[in-house]
Amino acid sequence: MKNILGIISKQHQVRFSYIEDEIVVYALTPPDQNWPLEEKINYLKKLTQLQFKQINEKYYTIFNDQKVDKPLCGFLLDAETGKGIENATIRIAKAHYTTFTDADGHFEIPKISSDVIQIQHQGYQTFTINPKDLNVPGCPKFKLQAHLQTLAEVITQRYLATGISKKNDGTIVIKPKKFGLLPGLIEPDVLQTMQQVPGIISIDETISNINVRGGTHDQNLFLWNGIRMFQTGHFFGLISAFNPSLAQNITLIKNGSSAFFGESVSSLVDISSQSNTTEDTNASLSSNMISAEFYSKVKISDNSNFTFSARRSLTDILESPTYSNYSKRIFQNTIITDLSTNEIIGYKSNVDFYFYDITAQFEQKIGTKHQFNIDVIAIENTLQFDQSTADLNKNSSLEQESFGGSLQWKTKWNANHFTEFKGYFSAYDLNSSNQTLESNQILDQKNKVLDFGFQVRNSNRLSDQLTLNTGYQFNETGVTNFDQVNLPFFSRTITNVLLSHVGIVESIYETKNQKTFIRAGLRANYFDKFGFFLAEPRLQFNQALSNHWRLEILGEQKSQTLSQIIDLQQDFLGVEKRRWTLANNSTIPIQKSNQLSLGFSFKKSNWLVTLDNFYKKITGITSSSQGFLNQFETERAVGNYQVLGSEFLIQKSFNRFYTWLSYAYNDNQYDFKTLTANSFPNNFEVTHAVTWAGIYEWKKVKFALGAKWHTGRPITTPVNFTVSETNPNIVYNTPNNENLKDYFQVNFSASKEWRLGDKSSLLTSASVLNVLNTQNSINRFYRVNNANNIVESVDTFSLELTPNINVKFIF
Questions:
Q1: What is the dihedral of CA 66, 72, 77, 82, to 10 degrees?
Q2: Residue from 701, 740, 811, 764 nearest 285 by CA
Q3: Phi, psi for 91 (deg, rounded to 5)
Q4: Nearest 10 degrees: CA dihedral of 68, 69, 71, 74?
Q5: CA 70 distance to own-chain centroid
Q6: In the chain, which residues have pLDDT < 70?
Q7: Where are the alpha helices (DSSP H) in 510-645?
Q8: 794 and 803 Cβ atoms separated by less than 8 Å
Q9: Cβ neighbours of residue 756 under 8 Å, at least 6 residues apart?
């Protein structure tokens, strides 16, 4: 604009008077040189809305009467949630000027250039703003689109915490990069986060024993970039095995899963760290009182990325208070401790433990239609337990490791046709060697799982409202169990292999106004070894009843051929005593589930209320998969369980502060026809569970305080606490006749982010688990004290008050 005014001044022998700030933001095409002066002025007035006042024949003044004597300013908002986008980069390249948005998405820049303003944020699509669009009264708002594929409509965005949303197909989606804060957490740990959702609980506080609507942990399907994971935890269940710095998108489904997912009769946890855009190079380095981790995403070219992450424990280097409390919790009532005192065995002993996980990913776009992905993951836990006296030295060990990889090719033929090819393998290996000082006996045990799979998926959009998905899956699973004792010598190796073929058809219907959503699918399984088909229908239905109310109906039939069983409680040092086994269609049947739920949701004025009622029946379970510690501990029976329950959530947001209260009810009953008691409460029944949290977010500071309460798990008590010398066996009451005392825990977390530079920041966080140091009994069994022939009770207690801190450098 300034240059144009200079040219006009020379051509027509006139002078213009103006304030530089009022014209510097305008850049436009010069008017035609042959136009008269008046036409040129009218042209400039029309394009800039500036006022031109003629003082005399030679002089003009230019001014802006819109009262914009302020810096350029605006707000950047998430197009999906309307929430401000923090730490977006605002850059005027030619002027070498950079600034950032605050917690509300607000920014200010001086009036220094007419060049376009570039907006960049790693979670959103690149955006540009013309300076003249900011040169208006007030601060305009701009909505940015996230780096995501087109997804189903969001019912509510902030579900429990920032970065968690619930969609109209019943799925709950967690996005760690947008994650806020939850009580007791210092990082967005997916398996800890999912326990905040109503109906999901860990009855023994571990993420290797997550119970969804009364099911066992092995009945949940865990996928990482399409790879089935058979190991989900470090520290034998206290820490998630999935690096929290890595995940892009986590989908949690309690019921009504797509027909493309099988091999689980309970929930689905689908973790994807793949992105659909080529991101700029970024990295992070962090450490807490248990482990240290590194993450880096390198932009190789405009169409390719390489991502690497690694995490390793510090437990074999530093014995922090956090590690000490974790050790007390996980090694209770195992061979590592003396059951009579629950202390480390009185010999000279040494316990060494460490874990690590590594992931590597390569993403390549080929042209505009194709994308290729390679993903690799490795996880390991290693425990060395040494005992010694003056004359003897014995070493025991336990190693748990997983390794998996996948190849994926995606092709988008056109706007309505999409095809995906995927192949993967997953290997799980659990080894232990138990040597005791009391004898020369050595017990070696192994549990191995090798899983191969291939899938093709084809999607056709038939109309604006109807999509048809079809697919085929092939899967081969092999399981080996090995036991060997040297004195007396005994060796056993059992290997089973199962092949399955699956055909899938699924249709999705959604009205243009998004008030009605229906997904109906059929999964047809053929098990080669058993020679029969198993059909599994699936349904998700969501209907808007009004502007604020929605109805949700979900139903599914599912099956799984793999399950975890416990042979003896002291197996694998008693630390990780569950081993995977494959169905044989006789003593270990294929598990099958039927589930139906009816739910309602209400959302208005920052209020969210959800209510889900469900019925769930699982058939084909074995008693050895349920962890009995009573008269059925050595029994081998096949049965089922039925759960009838309700889940309720109420949540309210008050700008920076939000809070929620959830309640879950479960009536969970076993039915074993061949046991002496046919019907009795499930070992994992939690009749009533309540969770509350209050979270405050202000700019870069966040606080979270929460509490958990639930009724105690069922236990079976002895009839008498004395036994006869001739028959020192415990006589029990009816199964699960009593419950442990109620569980109660208060947790706290806080975090703050510090901006260090244009692309670097420091994130600090702290947490305290069990703030009140409440002693909760989470399990109990009984044993005979042969010295005085009485029955003793042995309790496993929850984690004590445990602090933790995390420092994360992002660059």
A1: -30
A2: 811
A3: -135, 135
A4: -20
A5: 44
A6: 67, 80, 147-158, 177, 179, 247, 337-349, 389-391, 438
A7: none
A8: no
A9: 762
